[in-house]
Design a protein that fits this description.
The chain has two domains: 190 residues, inorganic pyrophosphatase (n-terminal core), CATH 3.90.1640; 122 residues, Roll (Diaminopimelate Epimerase, Chain A, domain 1), CATH 3.10.310.30. It contains twelve helices and twelve strands. The strands form two sheets. A six-stranded parallel sheet has the order 1-6-5-4-2-3. A six-stranded mixed sheet has the order 7-8-9-10-12-11, with helices on both faces. The two termini are 39 Å apart. The site of manganese (II) ion (MN) has 6 residues, from loops.
């Protein structure tokens, strides 16, 4: 699809939200904390403005997010205003793409790789999370940020920054988090659920993946492969796989950590995490995907060995461009 978005600012977005009603807020498939936090944070704020709003997600919402997703009122209505949050590309809409892909009026996002599918796009690539943008919007709308909204937004900001650790974390990130904590939410409990809790199945999967971890380019790149067989053997559910991508980058000396996950036979979801100066987004763009400077992804088809060599080819080019070669 061609880039068609008109870039808009926060004033435009606030006016748009005030004038419209019957909101359908779309998030990406396999939703993460930021997608759901932004979707439900915005939905709760719109409901407080006496608008009708609902979040539509292509996949079931993982139970661990219920503490804020269940706080929104379930409203039955026919949607009129279609919004997308944290959605870089309509391809990520999964089963909702056909119905909504070309009907999205407003997109609020922080992915530099946003493909410009919406009529209006509020894009802030410097925001650590889309939830930071939603926070600014709700403040500007003059809607009080209550505990439920704070739970949603805090979750998104914390998860997209790896618990305030990643390089996307700014002073503003911490200031917003502080304001959200001031509403009385239990931030340590949220972070315990998001970061310090793993099922035994997940640990078993990690053990298997670590066993076959591979290193390339003199230890600058690592690859972890999670096959369908490993997932089945461990008993891990899809949402228990979240965050597995952070393992590959944690090894000393690594500048590019790759996680290859088998979705279907010969269909692989690739996640790439980098350290400066490597640009994960450009590595993935060459492979037909996109994302952020330090975290990006793509989907590749074919035999596993071919998939690996294509990834390694793109990483090699990035290492050469960044003069990071061995
Ligand atoms: Mn995000």
């Amino acid at each position: 699809m061609d880039y068609k978005s008109l870039p808009v600012n926060i004033d435009f977005v606030c006016k748009f939200l005030q004038e419209r009603d019957l909101f359908v807020i779309l998030t990406h498939a396999s939703p993460d904390g930021d997608a759901l936090g932004a979707g439900f944070g915005l939905c709760l704020a719109l409901q407080k403005m006496n608008k009708r709003a609902k979040v539509l997600c292509p996949d079931p919402i993982p139970q661990k997010y219920f503490y804020f997703t269940k706080t929104a009122a379930d409203q039955e209505f026919v949607g009129r205003t279609i919004i997308a949050v944290d959605l870089a590309d309509t391809k990520l809409l999964g089963g909702l793409e056909e119905e909504y892909g070309d009907k999205i009026e407003l997109c609020i996002d922080h992915h530099i790789s946003n493909t410009g599918y919406a009529s209006y796009l509020m894009l802030d690539p410097d925001a650590a999370a889309t939830c930071e943008c939603i926070y600014d919007i709700i403040k500007r709308l003059g809607v009080e940020i209550d505990k439920n909204i704070a739970l949603a937004l805090y979750t998104g900001i914390s998860t997209d920054t790896g618990c305030f650790k990643y390089s996307n974390t700014t002073a503003k990130t911490h200031l917003i988090a502080a304001e959200l904590i001031n509403t009385g939410i239990d931030s340590s409990e949220i972070n315990r659920i998001m970061f310090d809790t793993k099922s035994r199945q997940r640990l078993e999967l990690e053990r298997m993946a670590l066993e076959d971890m591979e290193y390339y380019f003199g230890g600058k790149c690592s690859i972890i492969t999670v096959t369908k067989a490993m997932i089945d053997k461990s008993g891990c559910t899809d949402d228990e796989l979240e965050g597995i991508t952070s393992i590959s980058r944690a090894v000393e000396g690594i500048v590019a950590g790759v996680t290859i996950k088998e979705k279907l036979p010969q269909v692989y979801k690739i996640s790439i995490r980098t350290h400066a100066p490597l640009d994960a987004s450009s590595i993935c763009r060459r492979l037909g995907g996109g994302g952020h400077a330090r975290a990006a992804g793509c989907e590749l088809k074919g035999p596993l060995e071919d998939v690996k060599s294509r990834i390694l080819g793109s990483i090699k080019q990035a290492l050469e461009e960044a003069q990071c070669t061995v």
